Amino acid sequence: MGNHIRDSIVRGVYLPGAPLSETALASALGTSRGTIREALLALSHGGLVVIRAHRGASVATLTPGQAQETYSLRALLEPYAARLAVERDRVDATAIRDLNRAVDALSTAIASRDFDACVEADMHFHARMSAISGHVILQQLLGALAAHTRRFIILSDLQKDDMIGDVESHARLVSALLSGDPEIAEREVRMHIEDAAARVLQAATADSSNHERGKRQPIPHNLAGKPAEGRNLAGET
């Protein structure tokens, strides 16, 4: 049950700030309120859910501070993963094939304006790139940031009309890994993450301001601007 709720949050089905009713969730998922309560408590430990006394649980909002913390960590860890991949001579044909396939998938998704597929391709690319390093604990740390990263990607990239630059920037990362130079690989990945951080922070700051004014706009669920199916979990969409 926890995985179902978690996936719905990180994919933008349950929007930031939406209440998470134990009763409604238990009914919808065919389980007990106790099971839902335990799942929500576990998700609160991961920062995806906020639980307040006498008010219940809700989806955690996305703040500029969270964006800065998430991406500052990525800017330290992912460049190091790229450096290790090159230094350890682990950038082989299989690794490059997998990364190029992710870039191709991203390009195809953008052409068809399928944002869900865009996010999947982006996340797969970065997970595969970190895996090439062969550093297991580093992969685990980056994996722990993945849920927050996905939510911020949804917040920022859905507000863009043109994502072609994302394809080009990911292709440059592949070229940097192929260069055989750890410094180049590390630098290109850091620049990529810092650029993403700037866009995400801008979007998070704007979203936070709108939320404070009570004018928060629902996040669209694809590049064509179709609204997300955000739920208040009281049986309404």
Major sheet attributes: 3 strands, antiparallel
Instruction: Classify the beta-strand content into a percent band.
Output: under 5%
Q: Shape from CA axes?
A: elongated
The sequence of SSEs as H and E is: HEHHEEHHHHHH
The number of strands is 3
The top-level CATH class of the largest domain is: Mainly Alpha
| CATH fold descriptor of the largest domain | Four Helix Bundle (Hemerythrin (Met), subunit A)
> What would the average pLDDT be, to the nearest integer?
84
Please tell me the CATH architecture of the largest domain by its name.
Up-down Bundle
Number of domains: 2
The parts where pLDDT drops under 50 for at least 5 residues are 214-237
Task: Summarize the structure in words.
- This protein has two domains: 2-60, Orthogonal Bundle (Arc Repressor Mutant, subunit A); 64-211, GntR ligand-binding domain-like (Four Helix Bundle (Hemerythrin (Met), subunit A)), CATH 1.20.120.
- Helices cover 67% and strands 4% of the residues.
- It contains nine helices and three strands.
- The chain has helices spanning 2-10, 22-29, 33-45, 64-87, 93-111, 115-132, 136-157, 164-178, 182-212; strands at 19-20, 49-52, 56-59.
- Strand 2 and strand 3 (56-59) form a beta hairpin.
- The longest helix has 31 residues, at 182-212.
- The two termini are 20 Å apart.
